[in-house]
Amino acid sequence: MASKLDERSLALAFDGRPDLQNAIRQAAVGDNYIELFNHISLHICSLSSPSLEPASKKRRVGEGVPSRLVNSSTSGKPTPNGTSTAIEDNPILLEIKDISIVIPQRKKYTLCFTSSHIYARLGDSLEPAAGISYAWKDIEYVFCLPVPEKSQKQYNYLLFPKNSNITPSKPTPGAPQIPEPLVFTIPDSAPKPGTISGSEAARASAVSDDCKALLDWALTTRLQAAGKGSLKIMQADPKLFASEQKQPHRPGDKAVFVKAFRGSKDGYLFFLPNGILWGFKKPLLFLPHERIAAVSYTSVLQRTFNLSVEVDTSSTEGVKDIVESSEEYEFSMLDQLDFDGISEYVKRYGLADKSMAEQRKAKLHNVNTVKDEDGNIIGNAEAGELEKAAAEAEQAAMDEEDEDEEDYDPGSEGDSEGSGTSSEDESGDEDGDAQADDDEEDDEEEADQ
Fold first, then answer.
1. 377, β-bridge pairs
2. How do 304-312 and 233-235 pair as beta strands?
3. Which residues contact 387 (CB under 8 A, 6 or more apart)?
4. Do residues 293 and 352 make contact, with C-beta atoms less than 8 angstroms apart?
């Protein structure tokens, strides 16, 4: 019996692409090809949905929005496949086109706002992009920060879902996958005409003087409607921290960030009212004040220093007892010009400075000592700049004294053989001898007379 093409699975697998369906029908000549195409269609259906019902029966466009975070149950625990289902009757309220997504995927998308989710989709698609869908109820932190080193001012919006702001350096085997935050960039200008649509487009146009005002309103409105009214969009405050370094691209604006490396990755540290954030490369890191156990300054050199932040990573989720743990995150190559500003920030928020803790003092003995050419200890890489400057000044004075001693010649005030007599004394003696001879001759002449 000849094989038949499974039209039902073909229509489901390539829904919305009649051109591909027709191409497969034409290419399905012979039992081997028909069987192959049937297997492909069934496999695609199994990836997209466990049900073989037509998409129009499963949900209307924008209703069942897939998400990579947590499911819609009240437990709030991640599902095994990392997806969630939005509530029914969830139309798109606002769409903003041509938004540059940075994380999870770097590409331009249309950003869609519904009552339960925010997600991105391609301009020619009606479905959310894979892995870029977030439930409002799962959002834990929201930030709006300037994009560093841009000639034209831009802003990055960062949305951290639950348990995504701190990524362990060494993931625990068997631990659930940590979701990625949503990061997208907007210009410091008004939205382009025709980029805003949706049922709330008229309300949005009233606050669309610039893209930042539009996004602030859209995010705040949806968070409040989702019961997250206490969650504010955090921004950098130059009164709390501003770098001493000038921005070459925009010298009139204060830099509210410091360039810092995390391992081999270069990025930027933001010292914010509620914590310290490092971005904008994966994995992003946000360390809330309440999770910071201590900070310390290490590898302090003449031009740079490192900042180490000890973070409490204890967790009670899914266990009866608290599992106590901590991890230290080190940021390197910070400019010395910003040392005082960072130190003031640490003191302002009462963050414990453990730069001189016992485990760090141990490094002062041998590991990080600075020695001169003769092996004498003249400073320490862990010491503060004041202590280091004092040590250098003291050593300079000692070096100058040593040079004076080396240059001192005990015969410099006498002859080269150290006789202690000078040329003036010798000439004086000769003059004295000549005068004595003259006196003797005068005495002889008087005696003859």
1. 371
2. unpaired
3. 379, 380
4. yes
